[in-house]
Amino acid sequence: METTEFDGRTALVTGGARGIGAAVALRLAEGGADVAFTYQHDGAAAEAVAGKISGMGRGALALRADSGDPAAIEDAVDRAAAEWGRLDVLVNNAGTYAVGPIADLGAAAFDRSVAVNVRGPYLAARAASRHMRAGGRIISIGSNVADRTTFPGHTLYALTKTALAGMTKGLARDLGPLGITVNLLHPGPTDTDANPADGPYADTVRGFTALGRYAAADEIAAVVAHLASDAASYVTGAVVHADGGFTV
Hints:
- By secondary structure, the protein is of the alpha/beta class.
- It has a single domain, classed as 3-Layer(aba) Sandwich (Rossmann fold), CATH 3.40.50.720.
- About 40% of the residues lie in helices and about 15% in strands.
- It has seven helices and nine strands, in the order βαβαβαβαβαββαβαβ.
- Strands 3-2-1-4-5-6-9 form a seven-stranded parallel β-sheet, with helices on both faces. Strands 7-8 form a two-stranded parallel ribbon.
- It is globular and about 45 Å long.
- The chain starts with 9 loop residues before the first strand and ends in a 6-residue tail after the last strand.
């Protein structure tokens, strides 16, 4: 097997069975990493992603876990580290997308959104830091709406994704002495099952980007892979945009 950029490294991707998360898991495996990933509901999709990773000759571990459950997300990190005796990369991708009029989104929606989109990444990073050596990478997936909330109904979602910027900067300072980098990636509109490029609002959304198109999930995964690589060893506390110019 040829030597590749992530040979000998291990990764955990939360929400890795579909969309951007699946693309990230497969990209890291293509680079040589053994990859664990979490999923919540779609066992068939998780099995398919694990099969593709195994087919590359890499280790694969699918873990059912709700990122809104503190014990479940910390256990997933610990199990991933135990599987291969180390953890080098954590990608916080799992999220929930609660949108609608603010009058319709009360305490329950707020608590669930914060639990999954903010507390989950924080606890996963906290748990991962116990296993990581110098050279560890923590990357969270945010959203372009954190910097440009173009449409009504995104208050709660934008709030949670904006919180990740502060978390990223704080963790970068806390974990820098350990040689661990922490970064945040804000994707723009990306063609996935949940947000298809041929959806009912896609033409309007495309019009807000400078490139006039949606990203492929692989394009977002490529940026994650760069942040996880040795080439990004001096990048930490950064908020990186891969949004096709949505926020320019």
